[in-house]
## 1
Amino acid sequence: MPSLLGEYGTPLSSKSFKLMFLGSGELGKEMIIEAQRLGLETIAVDRYPDAPGMHVAHRSHTIDMTDSSALRNVVDREEPDVIVPEIEAINTDMLFEFEKDGYFVVPNAKATWIAMNRERMRELIASTGVKTSRYGYASSQDELLDLCEKIGYPCVSKAIVSSSGKGSCFIKGPEDVPRAWEYAMKKARIPQERVIVEEYVRFDVEITALSLRHLDESGEITGTFVRPIGHYQIGGDYHSSWHPWMENMEDLEEKIYGYAEKIMNALGGIGIFAHEMFVNLEKGEIYANETACRPHDTGLVTIFSMPSGQSEFALHVRAISGIPIHSEDGILNPIRTSASHVILSHGEGWYPVFRPSWKGFDSMILVFGKPQAFQGRRMGVALATGKDVETAKRNAETVAHSVTLEIDGRNYLQELSEKHALHN
Ligand SMILES: Nc1ncnc2c1ncn2[C@@H]1O[C@H](COP(=O)(O)OP(=O)(O)OP(=O)(O)O)[C@@H](O)[C@H]1O
Ligand SMILES: [Mg+2]
């Protein structure tokens, strides 16, 4: 891998160190801001103009990232030192080709190829011996019914290639099977003949465990772990996250770091890994769900909770640039209890106006800068601190729900569900 352990030139000069981001949404934007601070040259790529990362990068390209010749074109034109996938919907065949040509793909092409497909990722996790929900695969509606009977109800079916809950179904009983099959076939990102079915895990809290494979001061690869983040989901997408996930859980945290280490080492390469896990507190059980080889949306909270230079975005950029990351005991801890709460669009149109009414908390609103709003699209996030997790969560929720979005002359408030504290 190329590394900043040596020397590097000024951005925009012939000796600059160039990072190309494939996908430049809100996560790409934060990575680019961190890269800019370090004096790296940044190139944002996305499928639409004025994507969030394009607002802060040195240059940008608007292409279809599933199109091999478009990708080949921008990569050969820019000759980046590092190619940083920000999303899974990329032509992964090309990532293998770029790697063969000598480009450094983060964390490596194979890991990105594994992470875009639930079956490959589940098999990788299972091969490490880390606990997961019971699962199996079905390639017809009849097989799906047999599998559900075997795994037991309720269970969850998911399209093999999809994200944000698209193509996933909660199956209460045999009567739900035809709908689940049809839905998975319709919503899969790449038409596949199979679906995965998982046992429904009864968990108390969902977490994201961030782990890093990075270089130490002597240039050796080593592992570092970030104290886990807690989060909840609404409609298949993350809605709120908090850091740390809980207090006084050292024993469980040891187990979580052990799982994260096994999975990230099996994936290999360099960078941050975000492991989604379910925790059953009573049984002391952790179940690995899936791992992303990049910063995670629930990790936006680390902008507020972690010291400067240790947000998940800063850590990823430092790791992939070969910059050593130091910690006393291999664990990076938040310095203040914080939470994030998403700001969604409930209308459709261009260039929304944000109207926050500040609540007097230690808080901040990140506006991603997406030019177009549509139903359910994440447009920003509120970050807040609190004396404990519950207070931080409530503060972030209060701030997010104080925002009115004006779109095409109409005003939209944030919707409440029973998962919100403000609902009660
Ligand atoms: N086996 C399971 N048991 C219980 N809940 C589950 C299970 N699988 C998924 N869920 C719930 O559904 C959410 C989304 O599942 P998952 O992460 O597997 O799908 P996804 O489409 O990749 O979503 P995303 O892209 O947002 O991560 C989980 O965060 C969890 O809340
Ligand atoms: Mg997930």
Note: The mean pLDDT is 95.
## 2
Amino acid sequence: MLKFNVIVAVSKNFGIGFKGGLPWKLKSELRYFSETTKRVLDSTKRNVVIMGRKTYFGIPLSNRPLRNRLNIVLSTTLNKASELPEEVLLQPNLEATMKFLEDNNTLKSSIENIWIIGGASVFKEAMASKRCHRLYITEIQSSFESDVFLPKIPNDFQQIIPGPEVPQRLQVENCVCFNYKVLEKRQ
Ligand SMILES: NC(=O)c1ccc[n+]([C@@H]2O[C@H](COP(=O)([O-])OP(=O)(O)OC[C@H]3O[C@@H](n4cnc5c(N)ncnc54)[C@H](OP(=O)(O)O)[C@@H]3O)[C@@H](O)[C@H]2O)c1
């Protein structure tokens, strides 16, 4: 069974989004997101990023599609030909996306990791799925005005000690403290 990881940054008040974008401005956190979702051991492969329609269009125009990753957008209303660039895939839901990747051997063999990058309902479906391996969480230790929130993390996740690619020191930027942690779903 093909599995995926979730990556999310969340504030003390569980906010993840505000007015279509992120509630905060943290360059080093964006760099961590970019490096983590791009990282491959096999340089002939690349990773997949799966996101909801609003998350895709919330990414600044100059940065989307996210570079060096296969971008897949979940939507039941978008028209692929007129609203998304050719290299971006459109899928109706998360499970259909996973089955599509599983059934396409050429595509599957070109992929190393699959990352679920938001928003709220995609995170909810992803965290509840048996396909979910790990949650990569950035805990932002301040509250921010938000209009999109992280759904409750199910109880079957436990914190693990990650590899050296996940900094364990407290991060500080613009007087905001944050830390990276990794949870793994119990089998
Ligand atoms: N802090 C973080 O780590 C983080 C990560 C991601 C996003 N965000 C923020 O969160 C906000 C966007 O999140 P959001 O929750 O409002 O929207 P979203 O999940 O990105 O997009 C919602 C839309 O995506 C489609 N969709 C979502 N789940 C689906 C599913 N399971 N199956 C089929 N289609 C699905 C639907 O599109 P249709 O209506 O077209 O069917 C739905 O209306 C933005 O502010 C963004 O910046 C933050």
Note: The pocket of NAP is lined by residues 8-9, 16-17, 20-22, 51-55, 58, 74-78, 92-94, 117-122, 125, 148 (CB under 6 Å).
